[in-house]
Design a protein that fits this description.
2 domains; two-stranded antiparallel sheet; 20 helices; about 70% helix; about 0% strand; globular; disordered N terminus
C-alpha cells in the first residue's frame, strides 16, 4: 500500500500547524503592541483578550485566514485612529500618519501570506479578473497631487492611507477562496448587527454606554447636542454609521429574499431588519431616504432577475410601507422636529464649506491644493472656522483617538478641492469599475452570490447620492469597505459561477394576466 497519500496528509498537517503557530506568535506580538500604544485603563486588556481569542480560534479552527478575515472586517467598523507615529515623525495633527485596530489584523493576514509563500513555498494562484486598471489611476492622481501640495508630508501620509485599498484588493486576489468569501460576508453581517444594536442603545436607552464608562472602558465618544440620542455605534458619529449601513443592508435584504434555505433567509433578513433600524435611529435624513430608494430598486431588480415573484415583491413593499407608516405615526412629532429644527442651519453650514471648497478648486483646478491639504486652504479663506476645527481636532484626536478634518459635507467637492479635476475623474473611474464588476457578478455568479452582489451594487449606487451631502466615504471605514465590496464582486464569478448554481432561479410566465411560477 502506497504511503504517499499519508505523507501528503502529514505534510499538509505540518504546514497548517506551522501557519497556525505563526498566527499565534504574530497575533500575540500585535496584541502586546496595541496594549502598549493604546490609552491607559481596561481597554487595552479587553483588546488583548479579544485579540488573543481571535488568534486562538484561528489556530483551533484550522481556517486561520477565514477567522482572521471575519475579525478584520468586523474590526474595520471600530473607527479609531491611533497616532503612534507622532513620536517618530512629529505631530502633524489630524493630517499625520496613524494606524487603526483593523490594520493590525491586516498586517497579520499579510504576515501569514508571506510565510506561506516564502517559507512554505505555497503556489500563488490569482483568482478573478485583475483590479489594478481601475484602482491605479486614482492612486496615481493622489500621488501626483500629494507631491504638488503645500504640505507634501500631509499628502504622502494620505497616499499611504488610501493605498490600503490596493493592499486589500491584492490580498483578496491571491488568498480569498469560497470559504473566505463567505467569512467576509459573515463579518459584514455581524458588524451590521453589532453597530445597529449598539446604536439602538445609544438612541433610546444609553445603558451600555453608562456601564462601559463605569467599568473604566471609556464608553463611546462624548455626546454633543448634535449626536445625543442618535445611533452612532463605534463610528463616532451618526453621519458615518448611517451611510456605511446603506452600503451593506441592501445586500443582506437581497440574500434573505433570494435564498431557498430557510435558515439563511432568516439570518440574512434579521441582519437587514436590524440594519434598517440602525439607519432610522441615526436620525440622519439622507440615509433614511436613500435606503428606502435602494429597497425599491432592489425589489424591482430581484423580480427582473427572477429571484422574486411580482406578487411577493408587491406584498413586501406594501408591508414595509405599512410598518414605516405605523412607526412614523408613533413618533411623528420627533420626526417633524428632526426634519425642521436645524434644517436651515444645516443647509447654511454646508453651503459655507462648499463655497470654500469651490474657491480652493478654482485656484488650483487641475491637481487641487494637494491631497490632505484642505485645512490649509480653509485657514486662508476662513480663519475663524479653521480655529474652531483645530480645537475640535485636538480634543477628539487626543482624547478619543478620532481623526477629524475640515467638514466639507460633499465628498466630490472635497476631492475636487484637494486633488482637482484629475482626481475627481479618477475617483469616478474607480467607482465605475466597482459598479461594473458588481453588475458582472450579478450576471455570472450563482444565485446566492448574485443576490448578495446585486444588493452591494445597489447600495453603492445609493451612496453616490449620499455623498453629495457628506464625506463619510472618505473615512477609513468607508474606503476600506469599498475595497471589500470591489474584492467580493470581482471574485464571485470565479469562486461561485452561475454554471454551478445549486439554487436555480425560478422562472415565471404570465398566465391569465397574472405572473405565476412555472418551474425551477
Amino acid at each position: 500500500m502506497s504511503r504517499e497519500p499519508r505523507m501528503a496528509d502529514s505534510g499538509n498537517a505540518a504546514a497548517s500547524g506551522a501557519v497556525g503557530l505563526m498566527s499565534v506568535l504574530i497575533g500575540i506580538m500585535a496584541c502586546l503592541l496595541a496594549m502598549f500604544m493604546l490609552s491607559v485603563g481596561l481597554k487595552p486588556l479587553v483588546l488583548l483578550m479579544a485579540g488573543g481569542g481571535v488568534v486562538a480560534l484561528a489556530f483551533i479552527s484550522g481556517q486561520p485566514k477565514a477567522v482572521l478575515l471575519f475579525s478584520w472586517v468586523f474590526a474595520i467598523t471600530y473607527n479609531r485612529h491611533i497616532y503612534s507615529f507622532d513620536n517618530i515623525l512629529g505631530d502633524f495633527g489630524s493630517q499625520g500618519l496613524y494606524w487603526t485596530p483593523s490594520d493590525a489584523l491586516l498586517f497579520l493576514l499579510y504576515a501569514i501570506w508571506f510565510f506561506e509563500a516564502a517559507i512554505l513555498k505555497k503556489p500563488q494562484q490569482p483568482q478573478g479578473k485583475p483590479v489594478w486598471p481601475w484602482v491605479m489611476p486614482f492612486l496615481f492622481a493622489c500621488g501626483i497631487s500629494a507631491l504638488a501640495a503645500v504640505h507634501i508630508q500631509w499628502g504622502v501620509f494620505e497616499v499611504i492611507r488610501l493605498s490600503k485599498v490596493g493592499l486589500v484588493l491584492l490580498y483578496f486576489r491571491y488568498n480569498v477562496g469560497k470559504v473566505e468569501w463567505w467569512s467576509i460576508v459573515a463579518g459584514l453581517g455581524t458588524a451590521v448587527v453589532f453597530q445597529s444594536v449598539l446604536g439602538a442603545d445609544q438612541a433610546v436607552f444609553n445603558l451600555l454606554q453608562s456601564a462601559l464608562r463605569h467599568a473604566g472602558l471609556g464608553g463611546n465618544v462624548a455626546e454633543s447636542e448634535e449626536t445625543a440620542f442618535r445611533a452612532r455605534g463605534t463610528m463616532g458619529h451618526p453621519n458615518i454609521l448611517g451611510p456605511w449601513l446603506i452600503m451593506i443592508v441592501p445586500a443582506f435584504l437581497a440574500l434573505g429574499l433570494a435564498s431557498k434555505k430557510w435558515w439563511l433567509s432568516i439570518l440574512a433578513l434579521g441582519v437587514a431588519v436590524l440594519g434598517f433600524g440602525g439607519i432610522v435611529l441615526t436620525k440622519s435624513r439622507m440615509p433614511i431616504a436613500v435606503v428606502l430608494m435602494d429597497s425599491a430598486i432592489l425589489l424591482a431588480a430581484l423580480v427582473w432577475l427572477r429571484m422574486l415573484t411580482v406578487n411577493r415583491a408587491i406584498a413586501l413593499a406594501a408591508f414595509g410601507a405599512m410598518l414605516a407608516a405605523v412607526g412614523g405615526l408613533a413618533i411623528l412629532d420627533k420626526i417633524v422636529d428632526r426634519l425642521t429644527s436645524d434644517l436651515q442651519r444645516s443647509v447654511e453650514f454646508r453651503e459655507q464649506y462648499n463655497d470654500i471648497a469651490i474657491s480652493i478648486w478654482e485656484e488650483n483646478p487641475i491637481l487641487g491644493i494637494g491631497l490632505n491639504n484642505f485645512s490649509e486652504g480653509l485657514r486662508k479663506r476662513a480663519p475663524t472656522l479653521a480655529r474652531i476645527n483645530d480645537k475640535l481636532e485636538k480634543d477628539l484626536r487626543k482624547q478619543y483617538n478620532l481623526r477629524t478634518f475640515a467638514p466639507v459635507h460633499n465628498m466630490y467637492l472635497l476631492i475636487l478641492s484637494e486633488i482637482g479635476v484629475v482626481g475627481l475623474f479618477a475617483f469616478f473611474y474607480f467607482y465605475l469599475g466597482v459598479m461594473l464588476r458588481g453588475l458582472s457578478a450579478v450576471a455570472r455568479s450563482d444565485t446566492l452570490a448574485s443576490s448578495f452582489c446585486v444588493g452591494l451594487t445597489i447600495g453603492l449606487f445609493g451612496q453616490l447620492f449620499q455623498q453629495t451631502i457628506d464625506f463619510s466615504l472618505w473615512y477609513d471605514v468607508g474606503m476600506i469597505t469599498i475595497g471589500i465590496i470591489f474584492g467580493l464582486v470581482t471574485l464571485a464569478p470565479a469562486l461561485m459561477p452561475a454554471s454551478e448554481d445549486v439554487e436555480s432561479r425560478e422562472t415565471y410566465a404570465v398566465v391569465g394576466g397574472q405572473v405565476r411560477e412555472v418551474g425551477s
